[in-house]
Amino acid sequence: MKNVFVGVVVVAVAFGVGCSNVKNVKKVKSVVVKDVALEDQLALLDKYKGRHAWTRGAIEDLTERAPSGNEPKKRVIPRDSKVTVIDINFAYNGAVTVDDPKGKRIVAALGCERPLTQEGIEKRFDEIFWFDDPTIRHVDYIRKWGKKTARSVMNHEVFPSMPAEAAKESWGIPDEVVVNEIGSEKEERWKYKEGKRTKYIFVIGGVVGRFEE
Predict the structure, then answer these.
(1) How far, in Å, CA of 45 to CA of 52, rounded?
(2) Which long-range contacts (CB under 8 A, 24 or more apart) does 41-45 make?
(3) What is the pLDDT along the chain (213 residues), one digit of tens a residue?
(4) Phi, psi of 109 (to 5 degrees)
(5) Are residues 46 and 91 in the same domain?
(6) 86 and 27 share one domain
(7) What are the angstrom distances between the C-alpha of 14 and each of 3, 5, 21, 36?
(8) Distance (Å, rounded) from C-alpha 44 to C-alpha 47?
(9) Which domain holds residue 50?
(10) C-alpha dist (Å) from residue 101 to 28, 132, 134
(11) Residues 202 and 156 reside in one and the same domain
């Protein structure tokens, strides 16, 4: 990066740019986007590499393969699958390599906002994975919301009057949230895309008002 910056200054001077403009070029250096620092990369790898996790939703391989028999172009690991984190890629918007119990390995996009940060990557991990065993999660849900809601969350079901937090735990992070004013209240419309299907949850006052599958 330093060599590129020097080159810009030399070209500017060669074309007769005044000192004030050269100062403006120098200002660019202060806003250059930096990626995850090396020590943060090592900390993330130390925390997640080799850990078991469970998928909150289906995750798709970034790599396309030539079709072979029943094997599709892109491998997909379905929701609720136990996986092992193999590696984290810190280029572009981030990616994670995982193995499922059958040895199926995929590289899935994290889709983090840039610039990449340790906090952003950890947040994204929590959105696409559970790191607690399903039995432990079920017990936690019962303590938090009761048996009916806990059972629905484990079965990825929602119902009217369900707490919004439980609904999000059940169906995952929505692909889109739209907020509408309804009288004195605000209604949130959570949109979920599953292949060609689209599902919705409508949240009012912190609970599910209705849903569409």
Answers:
(1) 13
(2) 41/88, 41/90, 43/118, 44/88, 44/118, 44/121, 44/122, 45/87, 45/88
(3) 444 433 333 334 344 444 444 445 444 444 445 578 999 999 999 999 999 999 999 999 998 766 666 666 678 899 999 999 999 999 999 999 999 888 889 999 999 999 999 999 999 999 999 999 999 999 999 999 999 999 999 999 999 999 999 999 999 999 999 999 888 889 999 999 987 899 999 999 999 999 999
(4) -70, 140
(5) yes
(6) no
(7) 17, 15, 13, 35
(8) 5
(9) 38-130
(10) 48, 17, 16
(11) yes
Q: State the sign of the Cα–Cα–Cα–Cα dihedral 25, 31, 33, 36.
A: positive
Domain boundary among 70, 98, 130: 130
C-beta neighbour count of 125 within 10 angstroms: 21
CATH of the domain at 185: 3.30.1450.10
Instruction: Name the domain boundary from 77, 98, 130.
Output: 130
Same domain as 44, residue 12: no
172 and 88 in one domain? no
**Cα 99 to chain centroid, rounded:** 18
The domain total for the chain is 3
CA distance 15 to 75: 53
Residues 107 and 84 in one domain: yes
At 139, list the tokens: 């017990």
